[in-house]
Amino acid sequence: MAMLCKDEFPTLDIDKVIKMCLIHDFGEAVTGDVPAFYKNEENEKEEQKAIEYLLSKLPENTACEFRTLFEEMNELRTDEAKLFRALDNLEAVVSHNEADISTWIEMEYKENLVYGKENCEWSQYTKDLREILRIQSIKKIEEEKKKD
Q1: 72-107 residue pLDDT tens
Q2: Burial annotation 28-60 (CB, 10 A radius, 16+ → b, else e)
Q3: Residues 94, 45, 33, 72: is their CA dihedral positive or negative?
Q4: Burial degree of 133 (CB within 10 A; 0-12, 13-18, 19+)
């Protein structure tokens, strides 16, 4: 997604955004993927330990670069980090919209309509994408209701 929106953000370092997208789930390679709406403080701590463990196995210059990117992503202090976070949230909604609705749990009917909204507010482009996905979610839910 980051590669596809490069032209929308000509002043951003899209290569940095792509790196953020590639490494953001680094810790989940060890801990497993916990859905965002289930993730708690303990999960976050375990994931951070896993990240530190994996970084310790990398060459120092790469580990340093990744640590800096993780810090930037967590603090959302740059537009690159904000774009990464928005795209990460949008991707989760896209995945849910593409999945068979029979796989959705009850809370996903609400979460899919609001998830990531606050992280998409910083840019009109990401705000518009979020709205398109919200409308797709509504249509998916309505289609399911018609079947009942």
Answers
A1: 999 999 999 999 999 999 999 999 999 999 999 898
A2: eeebeeeeeeeeeeeeeebbeebbeebbeeeee
A3: positive
A4: buried
